[in-house]
Amino acid sequence: MIGRAAHRTLIAALFLFLLAPVVLVIPMSFSADAFLIWPPSGFSLRWYAAMWRETKLIDAARNSFLLACLVCAVTLVIAMPAALVLARGRFRGREALVALLTAPLLLPTIVLALALLILFVGYGLIGSWPGLLLAHLLVALPYGIRVLMTAVSTLPPAVEEAASSLGAPPWRVFRRITLPLMLPGVTATAATGRDVPLRGKPDRPAGRRGVSAAGAADAQHRHRAGARGGARADAG
Amino acid sequence: MRLPALLLGPALLVNLAIFIAPMANLAALSFHEARPSGGVGPGPTLATWASIAEDEYYIELVTGSIGVALGVTVLTLLAGYPLALFIHRAAPRWRNLLMVACISPLLVSAVVRTYGWMVILGDTGLVAAVLRFLGMAKPPRMVFNLTGVVIALVEILMPTMILCLLAGFGRLNASLEEAAASLGAPRWRVFMRVVLPLSLPGVLLGCLLAFVLTVSSFITPKLLGGGRVILLATEIYDQAIVTLNWPVAAALSVLSLAVFGLALLLYGRLLRMVEA
Prior knowledge:
The complex is a heterodimer. Chain A is built from nine helices and no strands. Chain A has a domain at about 60-215: MetI-like fold, CATH 1.10.3720.10. Helices cover about 75% and strands about 0% of the residues of chain A. Chain A is extended and about 75 Å long. The termini of chain A are far apart. Chain B is mainly alpha-helical.
């Protein structure tokens, strides 16, 4: 049947379109050329060697990792109690609070980043670790609260009630019952909390010193762009 | 009541410090004027807003950005729908694999995927090589113009669209399609009368997200546009970082938030219409 074959071809073409850029980056990283050419004239590990010599890139990767761990930890500490209250509590204005706390997810990052940039300049937070941490919390915290709220709302409250009716004080109920039951959600939050800074965009103003992974990618891009012109670009 | 307040306190405090305060500050800044010498003049004044309203460049920027976002949204829907439907109908053992394949680009940042598109669409790239091989002497330019930006944005937004569509297909029941087909409806009519209407909530959500994400997309137009494709987000960046005209950047930010608000309103309206 012709219709069926055409349908198959369409689906295959769409899959190819969707996956092409991600797949193609891998062979291109082994290219022996100094600029973007397809097909490459040969394959080599020269760009991997160049990467190790590029100390700025290594520093950027290390900073990204440190920042990711830091953001992850702070997000968990702040988001966990908030998610508990928001998922369990039945009080007026709960919906509004959830909307307020997760609103940054909806808005354009460039606008959020500009707003932070302008405020941070006044407090000398640009290019500082506290500034970076705060800027990333803006995105990580709403994700954390959302994921943890889902985790909390799927817990059976009966188990906690049983524990407290047997005389356990609230903090012990939390430590022995609630926290272990929440662990899958906590792990998910930790993963996204780490993920956000690692994928952070260079439009995050406080990250403009090449501290984020995106900054590293940007530096590499400029490195290659510089090589195109015959001169070695300074990544800084 | 004291304990909940204590537990919510840190989150609200952080929200106030890094979300409410900066956004209020930004909105207020649009009612100031940039001094020719640099820096921000005393406010409040409507001068910045007036200069934007009078300048044709900014009006074209806003309408152009909305146009590009609508175009990208429609193309993403057209590219995503067949794939989502294919995944939805695939045998269970294939479905998970196909899902992972579709969602996996989400795990790679937009920077890397934009870079991949530069390799594919560049003057010495994959598509140009294929076209030359097929005998085209001078392949059309596909980077550093709108074509490349739209192609890349469609691909970058496809996983999000597919996720929304798949969520919408949850309401689709195979027995409904079979009923329509057994009553003699041809395949295209089953699609138009049963499949498409039932999937509309997913379509609307996917379109809303694609639109909103295109309006706020920044890296892709910046890298693939090569400075020639100017959209709201890139102009905000240029005004804030290059020209250092913060009041104009603030006003454009408020404008883009207004576009977001309108998109959300329209989405709510359409959703009520579809579900009624």
